[in-house]
Amino acid sequence: MCGITGILTQNGTTANEEICRRMTRVLSHRGPDGEGVLSLGPAALGHRRLAILDLTVTGRQPMASADGRVVVTYNGEVYNFREIRAVLEEKGYVFRGSSDTEVVVNALHFWGTKAIEKFNGMFAFAAWFKDESKLILARDRYGIKPLYYMQTEDSFLFASEIKSLQQHPGFRFQVSKDALIEYFSFQNILSDLTLFERVKLLPAGHFLEVQPGTSEINEYCYWDFAFRPVSMDAIEAEDELQGLFEKAVARQLVSDVEVGAYLSGGMDSGGITCVASRQFKNLKSFTAGFDLSSASGMEINFDERGRSEYLSNLYKTEHYEVVLKAGDMERVMPALTTHLEDLRVGQSYPNYYISRLAGRFVKVCLSGAGGDELFAGYPWRYYHNSRNGYNNGFADSYFRYWQRLVPDDLREIFFTPAVRKMIDFERPANVFRALLTNGQANVSDRSPQTYINNSLYFESKTFLHGLLLVEDKLSMAHGLETRLPFLDNDLVDFAMKVPVELKLRDWQNMVHINENDLTGKKQVKSLSTDGKLLLRKMLQKYVPADYCNGHKQGFSAPDASWFKGESLNYIRKLLYNKEARIYEFIDFDVAHRLMEEHMKGQKNNRLLIWSLLSFEWWLRIFGN
Predict the structure, then answer these.
(1) Which CATH architecture has domain 234-376+450-551?
(2) 543-548 mean pLDDT
(3) pLDDT number for residue 294
(4) Mean pLDDT of 15-21
(5) What CATH number does domain 2-221 carry, 3.40.640.10, 3.60.20.10, 2.60.120.10, 3.90.1170.50?
(6) DSSP states of 240-272 as a string?
(7) Nearest C-alpha neighbor of 366 from the set 489, 241, 259
(8) Is the pLDDT of residue 296 over 70?
């Protein structure tokens, strides 16, 4: 796991190695174990190393093939590298070391871009093909590892993080209005834009090609989610899932450094920790809890330390905890925002603290992310419409549901008059529909099963992707590699074939539920025991049955309570101040009205308040 960056000049000149070195150095937190910069004429590649596999000099990057025809700077892990290496050795390739990077280099040398489809893992890399004089950028199937790029007047730039691009003299800060309207519609950015004008994010499952002397970028999709169920026997499906799950965990345990595991009170992380602990005696495990002395409502159950401690005792792990209070959010916002760079999804500061904890003890940590999106872990989202609502059309009804921040009737007046003139208010709906119709979701079939599979497709492409970006940035902030067994290629391929009736219990009885509705707590709770049926059944082989059959609970702090209580003065200081930076873009009176709704208990606007806080800090840190 590392940080990568580089330059390709588009006017035929030699790339500036010193600028590339500056771009590389700013990524030192991603790779504290070494630095490499290589000049290749019009291209310059940079690398910061976090040594996980092959800790010797033979694992250093950028790395070239034996004949120098292919040079790679690579971030990630290809878990099936040994199988690919065996094939390449049969073809006559000789390996100097034991890293997966060398396998990636030689695979690209032999198969070209077709090699990307063979990789089972998480990765983002750049490869310079000397003979063809072209640069390839590629990103893994699911977008676990980020890769940003932009064009200046004379260069094409890329990097694992935007702060690296900022080191180039051609970088100019400007807020992308198109990304801004996406973010305040979805609390996410669904397109390839970022909040930084001209900076784009290479989509998951894509690679691109660019050559010196031209500004043309050719982008290709090599993989996409496809939830297309087949008929399955429940018992046989459970057995197959168990085998794939154990293989996935085993694959991701390969490492030349110590591996740990996140251990919440849930079944997903519990199952992973159980399997991993069988291989590693005294496996280190980590959890974050919350001080709930001022919490209320559903949030009084947000602290899962007792459950994680029970599982730790069961699996005999060496367990560590961090307990978060309201003031911890206030303390961490500058550092958190600096590392996130490109704002995505909901509150994420607990992830920062637990990554910091784990990073003090291990370099690699296993996570249970991905199981919810693949096996239907959020039933209230799929059941949010009545049948009549669904019959109005999947894309339109789901679009309305995923407008998480600003209500429809306030969207156009939410921004200042000057900014309104620069915003395309039709963009969020158009981006949403394009994502579905250009992908593999079937929006014309109005059966409940198809509706749910379309929902899973959308969430895997967008919501999961946002979570993965956050996880990468906050773990790598502490030199920590997070691995995700549920996003093993073989396991994902199987999950997409599992029929709805093996994932959800009440899929034929869709009801309207708003997960942020303060009056709908009982409905949400009743549905939180539905979903992931096949996964719940299989994981009972590793996790106590009451854990597998309990209520679904996300990893969230009690912010709805804290924003009205202990954090109230902090919010008022930052956001009730008309001089705040956000009011260059957002109408103060509208923002104030929405915040007051939350403070008075009229509506749960915690997501919007978090996004306003995040945007304020983002502007302070990056806005010059």
Answers:
(1) 3-Layer(aba) Sandwich (3.40)
(2) 89
(3) 46
(4) 97
(5) 3.60.20.10
(6) HHHHHHHHHHHHTT--SS-EEEE--SSHHHHHH
(7) 259
(8) no
